[in-house]
Amino acid sequence: MKDTIQKVKQLSDALFDEIQSIRHHLHEHPELSFQEYETADYLISMLKKWGIEIDQRWVKTGFTVILEGKYEGATIGLRADLDALPIQEQNQVPYASRTENKMHACGHDVHAACLMGAIKILHELKDSWAGKLVFIFQAGEEKLPGGASLMIEEGLLDKYQPERVIAQHVYPEYEVGLVGFKSGMYMASADEIYLTVKGKGGHAALPHRNIDPIVIAANIVVELQQLSSRIAPPTIPTVLSFGKIQGEGATNVIPDTVTLEGTLRTMDEECRSLYHQKIQQIAQKIAEAHGGECDVNIIKGYPFLVNDTIATACSKAAAEIYLGSQNVKELDLRMTAEDFAYFSQRSKVCFYRLGVGNKEKEIVHSVHHPKFNIDESALKHGMGLMAFIALCNLEEINQSQ
Fold it and tell me: Which residues contact 69 (CB under 8 A, 6 or more apart)?
């Protein structure tokens, strides 16, 4: 084991400049969800330079790479996402985005670069391990219905049948050198709520002649905020929030309609379904009670993400060996969402966090921020740890079979 760690770390050090260059290229040329054509072509061209061919294209801009060890054994999947966000970058760095209003503000350039590094490391060591590794470069994580769901629909899991699937995600809340794991439920499902309240507008000084959609909307919001304690048990984290209310009126004008936009997050499918029913019933009944109407549109998003206990324990133990136990943390539940959850609904997975922050260098901004960046020494940890975690999971499964 010590010999393997040493080899992985040596390869990570040797590959750093090349993997950093890949990350810079991706960061300079961001592409939005399901538009990652140049991104995929660039990565595939780099793989060809290394003598590695892709196995298959998925969902147009996604693709997979297969590596086989010296001996037969288990199959493990390793996943990275490729898409950027519609954000104008504010970082003053040489590799800043060259495309207006597009930026790798969620670290997917880091994920892809680290997966490329892991491929190179594991390819160099392929005579020392048994089994098959499936490297999944996924399109469209940031946009519904999510590239993971589409790749699965196209048959990715049916084709490769991985025993486990591993993914890592940047985490600026942790200083570089730290990683985090959580077994069991980790991230929430995410649904979009759109309400259109219809009334009868008019002069604000004559409210008795109107059906005020603003009053109706206010009552709907207040009533819906009480849903959480009445549907989900206290043990199931749930969030229902409205972030946008718009009524095109004025100080003396009551509008005809008011629109509301919100999000529902939870970690239980039964409660999730019941929420959908109750939101529609409550919104429509309140509107009707005031003489108005309410159109309800709920767009079902990603499911909740569940980390497999055994896969997570194995991956966490590998991280403790590779980085030292003092650098491996226990993550808290998060109400944010991630389309890797689709893999967790079909396979045993481990989704863990890679520390990329550095307060001394003022690298402190969270993901989806126009000044998000990373301490690039995290690339060494990212590619090396992912490679070592893959080897440890293969070994554990092979020994159990």
Answer: 126, 127, 128, 129, 130, 131, 132, 133, 394
Q: Each residue of 326-372: pLDDT tens digit?
A: 999 999 999 999 999 999 999 999 999 999 999 999 999 999 999 99
Question: What is the distance between the alpha carbons of residues 258 and 242, in angstroms, rounded to a whole number?
Answer: 13
Which pair of tokens denotes residue 311? 């896969």
Phi-psi domain of 398 (left: phi exceeds 0; alpha: psi -120 through 50; beta: other) = alpha
Per-residue model confidence as pLDDT tens digits over 114-132: 999 999 999 999 999 999 9
Selecting among 89, 109, 141, 163, the annotated active-site residue is 141
Domains assigned to the chain: 2-185+304-400 (3.40.630.10), 189-299 (3.30.70.360)
CA distances from 110 to 11, 114, 231, 378 (A): 18, 6, 39, 9
Q: Is 141 a catalytic residue?
A: yes
Q: How far apart are CA 87 and CA 103, in angstroms?
A: 5
In this structure, how many other beta carbons lie within 10 angstroms of the beta carbon of residue 333? Answer: 12
User: Under DSSP, is residue 1 helix (H, G, I), strand (E, B) or coil?
Assistant: coil
User: In angstroms, what CA-CA distances link 324 with 93, 114, 274, 351?
Assistant: 32, 20, 44, 19
Q: Which of 31, 36, 81, 83 is catalytic?
A: 83
Alpha helices in 81-240, H assignment, sequence order: 108-124, 147-153, 156-160, 213-224, 227-231
